[in-house]
């Protein structure tokens, strides 16, 4: 059985290749459609590996959420139904309808370095899903980052409200 199946839109292959390589370098068995051998029936091969993989990593990008991303969405739907879906965001996009409640992991702008905490979190999450274990918590620096963004936004909004009120611009 394969640890991980990687679902993506073909136009994104160059961006997804480092993900596949990184997962394999981490010791995971990974399958993606570039592993289909000449003469193989590609549709049957994809379905077989999709149904056998312990974790399905779906790469959400501008291309994969668009009208031409139907196969990616179908693969994601099968993964979601089995409880083995791991969405990763490569572009600043909202997941397609039906997938917004599944927490995605942010790999936007990822350098390809396997020492990055967010990459290590992706690997740990794939391992956990493949083993049927609870998903790990995100790295603390990501939580702090989003907390800092939220706090900064709150302070800026309060300051703008105060300035507007003081200048009589409200009402």
Topology of this structure?
Elements: E1 4-7, H1 13-25, E2 30-31, H2 42-52, E3 55-60, H3 62-65, H4 70-82, E4 85-89, E5 105-106, H5 117-131, H6 140-166
Parallel strand pairs: 1-2, 1-3, 3-4, 4-5
Strand order of the largest sheet: 2-1-3-4-5
Report the mean per-residue pLDDT as an integer: 85
* Rg over alpha carbons: 20 Å
Find the structural class using helix and strand composition: alpha/beta
Q: Helix coverage percent of residues? A: 40-55%
Order of helices and strands: EHEHEHHEEHH
Shape: globular
Beta-strand share of residues: 5-15%
Give the biggest sheet. Answer: 5 strands, parallel
The N- and C-terminal alpha carbons lie at a distance of 64 Å
Low-confidence stretches: 143-154, 156-160
List keywords for this structure.
6 helices; alpha/beta
Structural overview:
With 171 residues, this protein is an alpha/beta fold. The chain is built from six helices and five strands, in the order βαβαβααββαα. The longest helix is centred in the last third of the chain and has 27 residues. The radius of gyration is 20 Å and the shape is globular.
Summary, kept brief:
Helix content is about 50%, strand content about 10%.
């Amino acid at each position: 059985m394969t640890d991980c199946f990687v679902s993506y839109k073909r136009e994104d292959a160059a961006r997804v290749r480092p993900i596949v390589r990184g997962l394999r370098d981490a010791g995971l068995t990974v399958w993606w459609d570039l592993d289909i051998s000449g003469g193989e029936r590609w549709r049957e091969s994809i379905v077989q590996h999709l149904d056998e993989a312990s974790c399905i990593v779906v790469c959400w990008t501008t291309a994969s959420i668009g009208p031409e991303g139907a196969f990616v969405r179908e693969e994601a739907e099968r993964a979601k139904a089995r409880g083995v879906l791991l969405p990763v965001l490569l572009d600043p996009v909202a997941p397609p309808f039906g997938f917004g409640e599944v927490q995605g992991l942010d790999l936007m702008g990822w350098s390809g370095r396997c020492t990055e905490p967010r990459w290590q979190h992706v690997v740990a999450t794939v391992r956990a899903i493949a083993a049927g274990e609870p998903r790990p918590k995100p790295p603390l620096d990501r939580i702090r980052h989003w907390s800092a963004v939220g706090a900064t936004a709150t302070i800026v909004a309060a300051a703008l409200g105060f300035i507007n009120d003081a200048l009589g611009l409200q009402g």
